[in-house]
């Protein structure tokens, strides 16, 4: 793709607390609650580019879901033939205009004109935070409010959860773990899950907080995921940990390959889910070549 004089395509990495947003994707004008993309595009428009602003988000997250490392690309052409922004300057400028919001740009790369944030991604990693021993929502430290799933009982069968998680690793038809939406007919349910692990976590203020709450983190890594796949896998694994589902039950659910087979009211809530990382080949993050910059 040949860029116009003064134009540049940027890949940005950004983080956000998703509690107050409709999700990461842009909400329509009539909708009161906006998506993270609405605020990102407004910040880019504040830089007064010549071109219309449109971000392509790499990884969709739903209402209430957070991110520590989502990404997106966009084109930016400055006025009066000014040269493209340096990456560090762009990060600072966008964060200046995002100041009222819990959204932050962490990095920016100037990339070739043909780069696409979604299709060039080679992996995505999600972490789901559990807090066991939360008998009432007020037991959760304020710094973790809306940032974990509070489970009433502290005892979890961790060994069984890990055995069940191991069944999910590899290439499978994950139809049973996807929720149905308008894109279902067009999405291949066969995915390769590179990682599904359960490790001890921590409260963000563990050193200063002394209630008997045990934090755990479930980590999932794949090139891509189906709609609500991570939250459904988490819900099933927690059910195993609480003795409500057996390890073989998870195997049977996976083999059913039917979204209707997934038990009702088992999907984990959105607030414990974090998109932590989107990865690319290093070669895709190189600066634009001369050809990309010429008109």
From TrEMBL:
Sites where the protein binds substrate: 126
Name the UniProt record assigns to this protein: tRNA pseudouridine synthase
Gene Ontology terms for molecular function: RNA binding; tRNA pseudouridine(38-40) synthase activity
GO BP annotations, alphabetical order: tRNA pseudouridine synthesis
Active site: 62 (nucleophile)
InterPro entries associated with the record: PsdUridine_synth_cat_dom_sf (IPR020103), PsdUridine_synth_TruA (IPR001406), PsdUridine_synth_TruA_a/b_dom (IPR020097), PsdUridine_synth_TruA_C (IPR020095), TruA/RsuA/RluB/E/F_N (IPR020094)
Gene3D superfamilies documented for this protein: Pseudouridine synthase I, catalytic domain, C-terminal subdomain (3.30.70.660), Pseudouridine synthase I, catalytic domain, N-terminal subdomain (3.30.70.580)
The family this protein is said to belong to: Belongs to the tRNA pseudouridine synthase TruA family.
Catalytic activity: a uridine in tRNA = a pseudouridine in tRNA; uridine(38/39/40) in tRNA = pseudouridine(38/39/40) in tRNA
Keywords per UniProt: Isomerase, tRNA processing
Span of domain Pseudouridine synthase I TruA alpha/beta: 14-119, 164-280
Originating organism: Salmo trutta
Recorded superkingdom: Eukaryota
EC number(s) recorded for this UniProt protein: 5.4.99.12
């Amino acid at each position: 793709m040949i860029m116009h004089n003064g134009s540049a395509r940027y890949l940005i990495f950004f983080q956000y607390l998703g509690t107050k947003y409709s999700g990461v994707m842009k909400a329509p004008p009539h909708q009161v609650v906006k998506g993270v993309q609405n605020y990102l595009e407004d910040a880019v428009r504040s830089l007064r580019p010549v071109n219309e602003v449109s971000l392509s988000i790499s990884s969709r997250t739903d209402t209430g879901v957070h991110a520590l490392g989502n990404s997106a690309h966009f084109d930016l052409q400055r006025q009066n033939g000014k040269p493209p922004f340096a990456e560090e300057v762009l990060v600072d400028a966008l964060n200046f205009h995002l100041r009222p919001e819990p959204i932050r740009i962490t990095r920016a790369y100037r990339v070739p004109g043909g780069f696409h944030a979604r299709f060039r991604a080679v992996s995505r990693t999600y972490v789901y935070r559990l807090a066991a021993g939360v008998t009432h929502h007020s037991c959760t430290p304020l710094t973790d409010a809306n940032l974990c799933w509070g489970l009433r009982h502290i005892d979890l069968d961790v060994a069984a959860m890990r055995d069940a998680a191991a069944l999910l690793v590899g290439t499978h038809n994950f139809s049973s773990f996807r929720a149905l939406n308008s894109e279902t007919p067009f999405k291949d349910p066969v995915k390769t899950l590179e990682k599904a692990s359960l490790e001890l976590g921590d409260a963000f203020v563990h050193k200063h907080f002394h209630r008997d709450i045990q934090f755990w983190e479930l980590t999932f890594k794949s090139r891509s995921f189906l709609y609500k796949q991570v939250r459904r896998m988490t819900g099933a694994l927690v059910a195993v940990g609480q003795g409500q589902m057996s390890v073989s039950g998870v195997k049977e659910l996976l083999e059913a390959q039917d979204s209707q087979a997934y038990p009702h009211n088992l999907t984990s809530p959105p607030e414990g889910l974090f998109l932590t990382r989107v990865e690319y080949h290093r070669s895709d993050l190189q600066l634009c070549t001369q050809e990309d910059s010429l008109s």
